Amino acid sequence: MTEKLLLAHTSKRSIFPGEFIYVSVDLALANDITAPIAIKVLKENNIDEVFDPDRVVLVLDHFTPNKDIQSAEQCKFVEAFAKEKRIKHLFSPAGGNMGIEHILLPERGLVLPGQLVIGADSHTCTYGALAAFSTGVGSTDFAYVLAEGKIWLRVPKTIKVIFYGKRKKYVFGKDLILYFISKIGVDGANYMSLEFYDRVSPPLCMEERFTICNMVIECGGKNGLFPYDRITEEFVKFHSRKKYKVYHPDRGAKYEDVIEINVEGISPQVALPSLPSNSVGVDKLEKKIYINQVVIGSCTNGWLYDLKIAAKILVGRRIHPDVRLIVIPATQEIYRQALKEGIIEIFTNAGAIISPPTCGPCLGGHMGILADGERCLATTNRNFVGRMGSTNSEVYLSSPAVAAASAIAGYIISPEEIKK
Amino acid sequence: MKIRGRAYKIERDNINTDEIIPARYLNVSEPEILGKHCMEGIEGNFSKKVRRGDILVVGKNFGCGSSREHAVIAIKSCGVKAIIGESFARIFFRNAINTGLPLVISGGWSKEISTGDTLEIDFEKGVVKNLSTGKRYTVTPFPKFIQEIIKNDGIMKYLKNVKRTETLHTR
Description:
By secondary structure, chain A is α/β, with parallel strands linked by helices. Chain A has helices at residues 2-7, 35-44, 69-84, 101-107, 139-148, 173-184, 206-214, 230-239, 298-301, 304-314, 332-340, 343-350, 400-409, 415-419, and strands at residues 20-24, 27-31, 56-59, 89-91, 116-120, 133-136, 150-154, 158-166, 193-201, 223-225, 257-262, 269-271, 279-281, 293-296, 324-327, 353-354, 375-378, 394-397.
């Protein structure tokens, strides 16, 4: 299916895995960290024109609301560029248009099935959930796209991944992708495309598909996608009125490998430091892992759906007095909805701190940095050494359900335990 | 294109871009500042120990994680001229090639290299010589298209020098 999507964006008759091709880009994305370098690259090369200002999205989300003077300067620099080049989509705290890019774009209906999206952010692979081809690149790549509207890619080989079987309670998309990465390894899908099939009962919802595609980069994948179906259609129709073209996988398509995963045996997962592939069942933890902080949010798990899962566990309860619980609704819209539905109240009553939409602590930016020796359980995507602060701090990864339960207990625990 | 330099080895797999340059320094993009903090999390004083013209030798999946080009900028700013790795993460690979930092994918033989060895890389022929041990290794040269980008010191200059002939790109 990836090959079909790529082919549709070339002027060629056929393409094959391993081939270097140039593809036209439908949507190009960058943020407050990657855009400044790209803009500098354009200036250094005396390139004044942007290929299509309507197809460029700039999201100031990593260090916003500006965490320090330098971050403020970077945002100012990007905003000035956006204004000068009449970039159609600029999202920043200004005007309340704030949000984490990979949740904001689908929410605003900016990514559609069949599109080719290039983003200067590694988690751009998230949009594969919409049956689009999308992949992350660096700043110079983004600058090149801004100039040319095209990018060079090597056609990837594809691995077919089928999730099937009845899932346990409290097992979500996050648990499936953590489990998958633990089986395949952090470079198990390097340079490859992953094509996911949902034969799980109950089926994966759109938010869970986004979570799964979001973490494809954590096993090295170029892109990951779910073929278009009723669930995709429902989401897209709700968020956009624009027309789009759907590409379905061919019946006789060739795959590098087919991996079938029976989800019946999978328990809620937790990825131990310092690689996303260090995932184990929470019920398999041998001793109590005490935590100082819990973060619920990020482009991986910052959807309203995720907040609801956490709120359901936290309702009527208080978090452990030694734990800081930071909840980050991914966009202003999600924040508003969460307020309306009483979810924010559940969180604050439980003792949580609500942060404005930002990538913030996920990458050790701001709003929840860890001290020496501190430990955090987060619904984010990376648990690398020093990712959230001190190089002597630790990050564990899980679903919002495990995160909420653990915030109550003070140590990492299965939601099943807390309900007792 | 040939490069000769001293080997500087970091014997580890999965070195991610958060380790190469932590996010707390991403509020700037000046090469000198980024260079000073290069590898801070794993190799204390890397920027002082590494010498201008060195060839970095690393393990598997180097540069995984975040797409931050700051990682490549930091490494280049320390004077590293090329990297030999058993394998590279996809986005890091692109960033390095796009900004004219040549890479060699060794597969495994680079384990035999020690810090301080003098290495010579011939990119067209796909040959790496360890002049200190006398060993010679062959690698599959990159496709012409990638070699052209490296020769032109990155994709932007390539765009300027080679122009936009799609037929050439897609060969």
